[in-house]
TrEMBL record:
Main location: other
GO biological process: one example: protein transport
GO cellular component: late endosome
A single GO molecular function term of this UniProt record: small GTPase binding
Record keywords: Endosome, Guanine-nucleotide releasing factor
Lineage: Eukaryota, Metazoa, Chordata, Craniata, Vertebrata
Superkingdom per UniProt: Eukaryota
Subcellular location: Late endosome
Chain ranges of the UDENN domain: 1-372
Family: Belongs to the DENND10 family.
Protein name: DENN domain-containing protein 10 isoform X1
InterPro entries the UniProt entry points to: FAM45, Tripartite_DENN
Length: 372
C-alpha cells in the first residue's frame, strides 16, 4: 500500500519527497506519509531531515505499504537505539484531505514510552485531518519539543510530564504471560537473566508488541528496555543491527523467523503458546531445583487474585536479588580493583547442584564478572 497527499492542490512528486525543516532536534523527529486515492504512498513531510535507511525502514513499518491491507492504528519499535512510533488512520469523507484515503504520523525519539507518543500522534493526526497541512502539526511538535506541552481546545492537550517512564515499564501484564505459559515462564526469566536472545512470533503485531514490551519487567532490577525490539522484519539491515546486540527481545510477524536459529537462543511461538530453547543454548539454560523454586514463586504470585502486576514484579525482583546475594560470597575484587569478579574455585567448593552452579556461572558471565 502507499501513502496519500494533503488536501487542496495535490503536491508535486518533488514536494512530496522533500524533507521539511533545517534545524536538527536530537530528542525526536516527526514525519507524515499518505496513501492517495490512486493507491500511491507518498512521504509528504519530515522534520528534521533523516537518512534514507531510516526512511525506508519507517516505510516498511508503516502499514500503508503492507500488501495485506490491514490497518494497524499504532505500532512502535526500535532500530539502532532510535525508537519509532507510528499512528495510522483512515481519512473520513468529511476531511479536507479529499484525495487522501489514509495517512500515518511517525515520531522518532530516544526514549521508550508508547503511551506518551500514541497520545501525541493522535493529537497530530486530528490536526492534520482538520487542516490538511503539516504547518499546525509543526507548531505543536516544536512546542512539545521545547516546552513539553501543546494545548488545543479542538484537538486536545498534551503534557510530556504526564507520561512517566516507569508507568511505561509497568504498562504490560506479567500475570497474562504467566497465565499463558505457567511454569515455562521461568525459561523466559532465565533467558533474560543470562542476557540471551529471545525471538517472539505471532501473526498479529499488536499481540507481539503487548507481549514483548512486558518481558523486560521479569528482570526489573535492570530496568533496561533498550533490549526490546518489538517490531522487526526479516530484512538484512534490520537483522544486522539486531545481531550487534549481545542480548535482546525481538518481535516478528513472519513465521519464517522460526527457521532462523541463528537469531535466537529462545523462540516463543505466541500463537501456539510454545517456548523452544535452541540446541546451542541448552547447556547454559539447563534447569534445576533453583529454577523450579523461581518458577513456583512466579506462578504462585501471578495467580494470587489479590496481587497486582506491579506486586508480582516486586516478588520476582526480590527473588532475583536473593540470587545475586547467593553469588556475592564467591565474588572478589578484580586485580585492578575496579569491579567484582567470580572466584570460580570458591563457587565449585560450595558444591551446589550442577544446574545451580551452571546457572550462577553463566549469570556471572552475563554480568561481566568472569576473569579475563
Amino acid at each position: 500500500m502507499k501513502a496519500p497527499c494533503p488536501a487542496g492542490p495535490r503536491p508535486s512528486s518533488a514536494s512530496a519527497s522533500t524533507w521539511a525543516g533545517v534545524v536538527s532536534a536530537p530528542a525526536a523527529s516527526g514525519a507524515a506519509r499518505e496513501k492517495d486515492t490512486n493507491g500511491e504512498v507518498l512521504w509528504v513531510w519530515c522534520y528534521p531531515s533523516t537518512t534514507a535507511t531510516l526512511r525506508n525502514l519507517l516505510l516498511r513499518k508503516c502499514c500503508l505499504t503492507d500488501e495485506s491491507k490491514l490497518l494497524h492504528p499504532f505500532v512502535f519499535g526500535q532500530y539502532r537505539r532510535t525508537w519509532f512510533y507510528i499512528t495510522t488512520i483512515e481519512v473520513p469523507d468529511s476531511s479536507v484531505l479529499i484525495k487522501v484515503t489514509h495517512f500515518s504520523i511517525v515520531l522518532t525519539a530516544k526514549d521508550f514510552n508508547p503511551e506518551k507518543y500514541a497520545a501525541f500522534t493522535r493529537i497530530l493526526c486530528r490536526m492534520y485531518l482538520k487542516h490538511g497541512s503539516p504547518v499546525k502539526m509543526m507548531e505543536s511538535y516544536i512546542a512539545v519539543l521545547t516546552k513539553g506541552i501543546c494545548q488545543s481546545e479542538e484537538n486536545g492537550s498534551f503534557l510530556s510530564k504526564d507520561f512517566d517512564a516507569r508507568k511505561a515499564y509497568l504498562a504490560g501484564s506479567i500475570k497474562d504471560i504467566v497465565s499463558q505459559f505457567g511454569m515455562e515462564t521461568v525459561i523466559l526469566h532465565t533467558a533474560l537473566m543470562l542476557k540471551k536472545r529471545i525471538v517472539v512470533y505471532h501473526p498479529k503485531i499488536e499481540a507481539v508488541q503487548e507481549f514483548t514490551r512486558t518481558l523486560p519487567a521479569l528482570v526489573w532490577h535492570r530496568q533496561d528496555w533498550t533490549i526490546l525490539h518489538s517490531y522487526v522484519h526479516l530484512h538484512a539491515d534490520e537483522l544486522e543491527a539486531l545481531q550487534m546486540c549481545p542480548g535482546y527481545i525481538a518481535g516478528f510477524v513472519d513465521l519464517e523467523v522460526s527457521n532462523r536459529s541463528d537469531l535466537y537462543d529462545v523462540f516463543v511461538n505466541l500463537a501456539d503458546s510454545e517456548i523452544t530453547i535452541a540446541p546451542l543454548a541448552k547447556e547454559a539454560m539447563t534447569m534445576g531445583k533453583l529454577h523450579k523454586e523461581i518458577g513456583q514463586l512466579i506462578v504462585q504470585s501471578a495467580e494470587d487474585p489479590e496481587k497486582s502486576d506491579s506486586q508480582v514484579i516486586q516478588d520476582i525482583s526480590l527473588k532475583t536479588r536473593e540470587i545475586f546475594t547467593n553469588l556475592e560470597p564467591f565474588s572478589e575484587v578484580s586485580g585492578d580493583g575496579e569491579k567484582l569478579v567470580l572466584n570460580f574455585e570458591a563457587l565449585k567448593q560450595r558444591r551446589f547442584p550442577p544446574a545451580t552452579e551452571n546457572f550462577l556461572y553463566h549469570l556471572a558471565a552475563a554480568e561481566q564478572m568472569l576473569k579475563i
